[in-house]
Amino acid sequence: MNEYDSNRIYDIVKKINYTKAKKLSDANCYVLNTCHIREKATDKVYHDVGRLKKEFKNRPKPIVVVTGCVAQAEGEVLLKKEKYIDAVIGPQSFHLINNTLQKIENQNKKINSTEFDVIDKFDTLNQIKTSNSDISTFLTIQEGCDKFCKFCVVPYTRGAEFSRSIDELKKECKDLVSNGVKEITLLGQNVNAYNHQEKKLSHLIDELSKINDLKRIRYTTSHPNDFSKDLIEIHKTSHKLMPMIHLPVQSGSNKILKAMNRKHTIEYYLELINKIKEANPLIRFSSDFIIGYPGETEKDFEDSLSLLEEVNFINCYSFVFSPRPGTPASLLTQVNYDLAQKRLAIFQKKVKEIKIKYRKKLFNKKSLVLFENKSEKNSNHYFGRDEYSNSVIVKTNENLKGKIKEVKILNGNHSTLFGEISKVDKEKVFAA
Ligand code: SF4
């Protein structure tokens, strides 16, 4: 979502004649768009500002603005502790950035802009045409979350659930497609809770599918409890919706899920996976896991390992639990750090094994790849993604940008697949 926000921030500042600097050191204004999910996010801000101070030691000070969730969560502290920062702007206030920049230019004054005015934000953004022309890009459709998982800062930094209207999303999507975009990932902290005047995510997907030159649709991130029947159903019927679902589970243990306030059980999760697979057997899943959540025993950890095998996730993001200030879980007694790290290493090894096994099965098979750009290192290497978001590289001198081609996968590793364009190329959406 920060990538989407950064693009939109750029669309806004262009209005007051700010342009992207060619080199980082050439800029006279820095916007650090931050994420608070990862550990040490605030330290990273201080570190980056430190680098700027060094760079500008003998030059006029640039404007420094911190945006995003760190600004929301720790705004006042940042401004007090680091005088080099001129302003903090929360994720629901970045539409006000031009005003902020002009105030700094004129008055040299510190600004804290961390109101939750999500309606005003999108009203402003709707007036500004997106300039994004990446082949595959993001579109924020929903923000905030009402779930309050005990480890998560999102309900505090992004606020309550808010869904944008179908009409404004259709317009923004059409603008993106007219810029050359072919694939959209619909974004929301809790994307399948999308609900605008009783119109749900499935309805939005249906509407966006009608845009001719839009070839692929994805969405992320879903909560298992918001996976409604209509959403399962559309995976059966939509030819533009990709057969890959990111469905965070966080733990394989019911005891830990309860402690996290996830409000679902493993039995429910597995039943949901089965229902989705019944609707479309081509669908594969990826997930998120937190390892070493407070109270996690060896048995709980083993339950997470078993779930990996049972679902056969083709990708997983896993991290050791790290307490986020202000969340209920931050007050709990933590699992011994070394033990948690040891469990993470075991877990990630298993994830990699499953991934390599899955990828080997793709060798000598064909998949449909949407090509995005040439490789920076080799000008005759083209990069794209298959339906499951696997990175694929082919050798070619043809300009494949924005094209979907049938590719025979020759080999690969856990991060990239290598292939060749099939002799007979067909443009279809689902691979055999
Ligand atoms: S559902 Fe996701 S965004 Fe919402 S509180 Fe839980 S982890 Fe955070």
Descriptive overview:
With 432 residues, the chain is α/β, with parallel strands linked by helices. It folds into 4 domains: 2-117, 3-Layer(aba) Sandwich (Rossmann fold); 129-242, Transcription Regulator spoIIAA (2-Layer Sandwich), CATH 3.30.750; 247-263 and 275-361, 2-Layer Sandwich (Transcription Regulator spoIIAA); 366-421, Nucleic acid-binding proteins (OB fold (Dihydrolipoamide Acetyltransferase, E2P), Beta Barrel). 36% of the residues lie in helices and 21% in strands. The chain is built from 13 helices and 19 strands. The protein has helices at 2-13, 41-55, 69-81, 97-107, 118-126, 154-157, 166-178, 201-209, 229-237, 254-260, 266-279, 298-311, 337-360, and strands spanning 29-34, 63-68, 87-89, 111-113, 136-140, 142-143, 162-163, 183-187, 195-196, 199-200, 216-220, 244-246, 284-291, 315-320, 366-374, 381-385, 391-395, 404-412, 416-421. The strands form 6 sheets. Strands 15-16-17-19-18 form a 5-stranded mixed β-barrel. A 4-stranded parallel beta sheet has the order 1-2-3-4, sandwiched between helices. A hairpin with a 5-residue loop joins strand 16 (381-385) and strand 17. Helix 8 packs parallel to helix 9 and helix 12 (298-311) packs parallel to helix 13 (337-360). It is globular, with a radius of gyration of 23 Å. The two termini are 32 Å apart. Mean pLDDT is 92; it is low at 428-432. It binds iron/sulfur cluster. Iron/sulfur cluster binds next to helix 6.
